[in-house]
Amino acid sequence: MQIGIIRKNARGLFVGAVSTLDLGTINIGLNPVQSQNPEAPAYEVMGWRTGASMVNAVKLGAVWEKTYRDGSGTVFLQGQLNDPSFAKPLRVACFTIESGEEKGNMSVVWDDGNRRNRQTSETKEAAADGDDGLGNSTAGNDQHSQHSFQE
Question: Tens digits of per-residue pLDDT, 16-37?
């Protein structure tokens, strides 16, 4: 699930914002890590509240460069954001957007840590039968389900 966009600004810095129900919206920036250690992250992720100055940024986490295992050589970023105010670390991945209005920018997605291709044969069979594994819908069973977000 996409939770944000990172763009390269006029000064060449990668900045953007991420939004979740828990965090609200926070600004983020990628600060390149200069290290000879091959295990070092590619970037520190810095964060600051909307309306605050980038000068007030605090380190929220780090991301490492990874390469797709499909042999394409495509590089993406993966890591996590964390802060004492978070219930648990937020795993994220950043992918270059290949087309459209945001082409060349990076999409920040929530990474739940589960690989979609690790489905059991039972799950695959259920999906083929139209069963998404979420149970029966209760939509429309009461008067509250008709309300919209605009109320």
Answer: 999 988 778 889 999 999 999 9
